[in-house]
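Incident log, support desk, overnight shift.

02:14 A customer reports that sequence design results differ from what the structure should imply. Their input is reproduced verbatim below. On-call engineer (initials T.W.) acknowledged and began investigating.
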């Protein structure tokens, strides 16, 4: 059975679907599930369809635009590297040199 959509996954290559790579596919799917649950919750709470449907479509369009923009800007692994770099401290302050002077005498090899 042939599919209309092609999912390209070669050897040692990340999964790609319509220009989205790896983790962004999961983020888009998770966001769409959250939007579906939001629609259901608003509908059950009695909000009118004239309010609920445009709201969900607007949020969905924003979600798709944002995920595609992040995928294009950061690529496959770039977003993880971006957040990892933001988590690094700007400097490290030591109040004593004892940490470094005892490395040679302890006999342990620093790896």
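02:41 Re-run completed on a clean worker. Output:
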């Amino acid at each position: 059975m042939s599919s209309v959509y092609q999912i390209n996954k070669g050897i040692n290559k990340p999964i790609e679907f319509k220009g989205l790579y790896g983790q962004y596919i999961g983020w888009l799917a998770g966001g769409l599930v959250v939007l579906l649950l939001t629609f259901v919750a608003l509908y059950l709470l009695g909000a009118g369809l004239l309010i609920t449907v445009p709201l969900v479509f607007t949020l969905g369009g924003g979600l798709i635009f944002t995920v595609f923009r992040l995928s294009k800007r950061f690529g496959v692994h770039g977003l993880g590297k971006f957040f990892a770099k933001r988590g690094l401290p700007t400097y490290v302050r030591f109040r004593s040199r004892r940490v470094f002077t005892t490395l040679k005498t302890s006999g342990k090899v620093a790896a």
